[in-house]
Design a protein that fits this description.
Elements lengths: L1 E15 L3 E8 L3 E7 L18 E8 L5 E10 L2 H4 L2 H17 L7 H16 L4 H15 L23 E4 L4 E4 L7 E3 L1 H12 L9 H15 L4 H6 L3
Antiparallel strand pairs: 1-2, 1-4, 2-3, 4-5, 6-7, 6-8
Length: 240
């Protein structure tokens, strides 16, 4: 069997046979993968807790000739305990890993997206005051990496650089981003605060003097339209 040493985030799992589980992992090196963990449901198994959803792990994976992947060894890097101990943070984190699972196909490397998810989870865990920013940041990144990015640093019609001095701000995801007041293309009118938030997200820069909640609602509407469905996390908990 081939051996692979991977850094992964646990996305989800389901029971398989009598004592096994199949885990969906998002790895830095190979993208989303499905891995069988044999015997993990036995009472004597010491690995089950290490494979909790959201855990960041180092995993040693064996690949059979058939292509089936099996978990050999693992080490927990970060269990993100602060997220799991806070209801609101847990909802946000589960939403992020759900859209990763829904958007990505198996065995396609997305290293930059993995790092973006890791950054967002780390911010949620270590700096919860930035939680809305962390979610919005990742929503923009996943749209961008998968080819649905929107331009937020200039007008997508006339290419005028973004400025806090525009007289009108419009957002049109079909046209590809922000539109200034000088251009006649229609769009959703947004205020300066939301425009500043979107621009800061595009730069990956947190603005401490604003709330990202309202702009987060805009981005979730965009995510729903691209997915053509409402993520289960949002169905259950509303806009997290």
């Amino acid at each position: 069997m081939k051996k692979h040493n991977l850094t992964c985030i646990v996305l989800k799992s389901f029971n398989y046979k009598d004592t096994d589980k199949i885990y969906t992992l998002f790895s830095e090196e190979r993208g989303k993968i499905s891995v069988t963990a044999k015997g993990v449901r036995k009472i004597t198994s010491k690995r089950a807790g290490s494979l909790d959803t959201l855990n960041l792990i180092h995993a040693s994976i064996s690949e059979a000739k058939s292509g089936q992947l099996y978990l050999s060894e693992l080490e927990v890097i970060d269990p993100f305990k602060n997220i799991k101990n806070a209801y609101d943070l847990s909802n946000k984190a589960y939403y992020l890993i759900e859209i990763v699972d829904k958007f990505l196909f198996d065995q396609q490397e997305h290293r930059n997206l993995f790092l973006a998810l890791l950054r967002s989870l780390s911010l949620l865990d270590k700096n919860p005051s930035t939680s809305d920013f962390s979610v919005c940041y990742f929503e923009l990144r996943i749209m961008e990496y998968l080819g649905y990015g929107i331009s937020l640093d200039k007008c997508v019609v006339c290419m005028k650089p973004y400025s806090d001095d525009w007289d009108v701000y419009k957002l049109n995801t079909s046209s590809g981003g922000l539109i200034c007041g000088s251009c006649s293309v229609s769009g959703l009118h947004i205020d300066l605060t939301k425009a500043r938030q979107l621009h800061s997200l595009a730069k990956g820069k947190y603005l401490s003097d604003v709330s990202y909640r309202a702009v987060g609602d805009l981005l979730k509407t965009y995510v729903r339209s691209v997915l053509d469905q409402n993520p289960k996390t949002l169905q259950i908990f509303g806009n997290v």
